[in-house]
């Protein structure tokens, strides 16, 4: 209590200072009044009126300089009164500063009567260019600002479509309003209350402790890996030594010298692990021909996998009945349990048997003609039921046989498209619908249907604003867009809104998520086969933008950009007779890779209460049935076709399968800070998967691969007949 009394006045002063800062006027009055009643002393603070008057003067001077286009005065005041920590670390301040530099760079173009003074204009443009190469480089990864990095290099920005909004009458007044709001908040916030300073300092100390703990753990893991590395290195040196001795022995036998069993035994003992050496040295007869080699091969033989038991059969009639008429909570638990059976089962016979049981019993009522069936759960009033139904469908779609089963109901695709567009936010329901549709795009007939339904337009609209999209939605949206763009009909759809599509794709090429780069690159390369789209791209200055990457990119990225530029500058007309990719609707070369991504089971919102059954326990307790397994030899699909990682995708893939098949792509992408071209419309890297052949143009689904019908010159792989 003594400590509190000793610091009471100062503590009360801290509280009042913060309340004043936060403008809790009524609270301050009540607080001050109660302190007087209780005889508590409040320390006197320096009057804020003087500070406020100085703040208003600074704010007025800044706004006057803004309106007059006085660039030098404005930024002198800006740097003096806006703290460097705020300007360097606060995204809002960085973005506003970027637009302010644009304002002063184009000020003469907007406000000069007649032709602006060339020397003054050049000086302003040069100042803006210098800003882009220094402080402005911090925003090089932000899609919103990418087009403006080309501004200093465009001869007449006033007529360039990328800068149209800058020269609208409303742009400058809107920027001024943003500046006023920022100054009124920031200049006031410069006088940070001590209570806030103490809190921030405390949080930093907590963070330091956490980082120290992480550092200790990282050092521990490093030591473990270092020991493993030293062991591998020792084994490697030992192997080289043994190899040299064996070569010497072979040379000796050529000269007629004999190799003794003791020598052979000593060599073999050195090749085995420490645990085996003692037993081998005394129990193996190395005089018998073939003994040593047999033992060595046996030591490298893979451990035989344990037998995986089949899961118990279920009463599917009862299951489907409860999925239709049960409570929403029961429906959700059943959908969850059925999905877990697929996602957690062992790949191979166990998972194949589960899927075949689902299909043979028509679990999802794909073939049902009844109005009340399991598929109607997609329209359930319960958001959880809708989400868990789409999760299950997405799990089915992750497997080739599952996609074949789902594709047999022609109405399901339309229902999923409606569900996709009905979700007004980036929910898990929308994620799973999108994931299922993306995997559907491996089947040609479903691709055609999605193109005819105008799904390309929806995808392009959604991808305009990637900030509000989850990584899953972003990745699967771009991959689906690419698959559809690779079809002739899809390219023609893109041609209807060429400017819109090119703008979105160019922005996506600079996105910080490197996983999407192969798909964006493939889509861009593919649609540039259309002459009208090439013309639109040239009008946008696409080549200048792409060439920015060549200056700072690695070899793979440079080659890929060169292919895209070559496609951009091609004068080949569209061959209307080449429509084979749209005619062979019955050919689905889905590769023999079923990828069940972990995202299917992420963020489970449904948790059982005490005494409530869920998962496999729910199924085997309430729905155990007679033997319904129908073992079926899995249809041998076409062998997986692998293409060079140096070339753009030319076959449909799912993101999950693409990551598994090409695990090195993530390492090939340039670092986010080093690869950003300073003056271009696109940032980051193109997927560094281009070789000396044409760029990637793949249909892609995040988890699987199937054939993408493309013009013959662009195919990386021989067609599978």
Automatic annotation (TrEMBL):
Residues 58-188 form the ARMC9 CTLH-like domain. It is found in: Cytoplasm, Cytoskeleton, Cilium basal body; Cytoplasm, Cytoskeleton, Microtubule organizing center, Centrosome, Centriole. Residues 450-569 form the LisH domain. InterPro entries: ARM-like, ARM-type_fold, ARMC9, ARMC9_ARM_dom, ARMC9_CTLH-like_dom, ARMC9_LisH, LisH. GO terms for cellular component: centriole; ciliary basal body; ciliary tip. Coiled coil: none annotated. Residues 572-599 are annotated as: Disordered. It holds the Pfam family ARMC9_ARM. Its main location: cytoplasm. Keywords: Cell projection, Cilium biogenesis/degradation, Cytoplasm, Cytoskeleton. One of its GO terms (biological process) is cilium assembly. This is LisH domain-containing protein ARMC9.
């Amino acid at each position: 209590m003594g400590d509190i009394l000793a610091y009471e006045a100062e503590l009360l002063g801290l509280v009042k200072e913060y309340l004043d800062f936060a403008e809790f006027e009524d609270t301050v009055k009540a607080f001050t009044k109660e302190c007087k009643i209780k005889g508590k002393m409040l320390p006197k603070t320096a009057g804020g009126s003087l500070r406020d008057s100085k703040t208003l003067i600074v704010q007025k001077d800044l706004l006057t300089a803004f309106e007059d286009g006085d660039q030098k005065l404005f930024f002198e005041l800006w740097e003096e009164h806006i703290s460097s920590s705020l300007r360097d670390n606060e995204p809002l301040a960085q973005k506003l500063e970027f637009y302010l530099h644009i304002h002063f760079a184009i000020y003469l173009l907007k406000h000069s009567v007649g032709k602006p003074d060339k020397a003054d204009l050049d000086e302003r443009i040069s100042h803006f260019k210098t800003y882009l190469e220094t402080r402005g480089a911090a925003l090089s990864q932000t899609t919103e600002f990418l087009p403006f990095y080309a501004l200093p290099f465009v001869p007449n920005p006033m007529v360039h479509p990328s800068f149209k909004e800058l020269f609208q009458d409303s742009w400058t007044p809107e920027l001024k309003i943003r500046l006023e709001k920022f100054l009124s908040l920031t200049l006031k916030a410069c006088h940070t209350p001590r209570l806030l300073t103490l809190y921030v300092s405390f949080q930093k100390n907590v963070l330091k402790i956490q980082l120290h703990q992480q550092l200790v753990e990282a050092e521990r893991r490093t030591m473990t890996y270092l020991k493993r590395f030293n062991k591998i290195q020792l084994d490697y040196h030992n192997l080289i030594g043994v190899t040299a001795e064996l070569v010497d022995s072979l040379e000796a036998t050529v000269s007629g010298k004999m190799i003794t069993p003791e020598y052979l035994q000593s060599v073999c003992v050195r090749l085995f692990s420490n645990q085996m050496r003692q037993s081998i040295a005394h129990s193996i007869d190395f005089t018998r021909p073939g003994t040593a080699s047999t033992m060595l091969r046996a030591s490298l033989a893979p451990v035989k996998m344990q037998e995986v038991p089949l899961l118990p059969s279920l009463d599917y009639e009862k299951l489907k009945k409860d999925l239709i008429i049960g409570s929403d909570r029961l429906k959700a638990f059943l959908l969850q349990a059925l999905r877990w059976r697929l996602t957690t089962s062992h790949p191979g016979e166990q998972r194949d048997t589960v899927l075949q049981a689902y299909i043979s019993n028509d679990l999802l009522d794909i073939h049902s003609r009844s109005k009340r069936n399991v598929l109607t759960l997609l329209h359930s009033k319960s958001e959880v039921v809708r989400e868990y139904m789409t999760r299950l469908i997405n799990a089915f779609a992750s497997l080739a046989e599952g996609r074949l089963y789902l594709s047999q109901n022609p109405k399901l695709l339309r229902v999923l498209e409606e569900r996709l567009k009905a979700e007004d936010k980036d929910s898990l329901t929308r994620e799973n619908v999108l994931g299922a549709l993306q995997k559907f795009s491996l089947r040609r007939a479903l691709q055609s249907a999605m193109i005819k339904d105008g799904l390309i337009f929806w995808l392009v609209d959604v991808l305009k604003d990637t900030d509000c999209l989850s990584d899953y939605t972003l990745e699967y949206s771009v991959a689906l867009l690419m698959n559809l763009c690779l079809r002739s009909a899809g390219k023609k759809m893109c041609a209807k809104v060429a400017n819109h599509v090119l703008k979105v794709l160019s922005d996506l090429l600079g996105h910080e998520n490197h996983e999407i780069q192969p798909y964006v690159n493939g889509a861009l390369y593919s649609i540039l086969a259309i002459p009208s789209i090439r013309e639109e791209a040239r009008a946008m200055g696409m080549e200048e933008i792409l060439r920015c990457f060549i200056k700072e990119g690695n070899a793979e990225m440079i080659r890929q950009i060169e292919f895209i530029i070559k496609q951009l500058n091609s004068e080949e007309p569209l061959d209307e007779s080449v429509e084979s990719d749209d005619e062979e609707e019955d050919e689905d070369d889905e590769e023999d890779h079923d990828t069940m991504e972990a995202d299917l089971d992420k963020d489970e919102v449904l948790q059982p209460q005490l005494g409530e059954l869920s998962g496999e326990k729910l199924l085997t307790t309430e729905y155990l049935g007679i033997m319904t397994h129908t073992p079926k030899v899995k249809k041998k699909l076409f062998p997986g076709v692998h293409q060079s990682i140096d070339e753009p995708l030319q076959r449909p893939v799912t993101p999950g399968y693409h990551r598994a098949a090409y695990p090195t792509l993530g390492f090939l992408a340039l670092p986010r800070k080093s690869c950003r071209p300073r003056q271009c419309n696109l940032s980051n890297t193109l997927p560094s998967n281009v070789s000396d052949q044409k760029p990637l143009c793949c249909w892609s689904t995040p988890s699987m691969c199937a054939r993408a019908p493309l013009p013959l010159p662009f195919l990386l792989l021989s067609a599978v007949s």
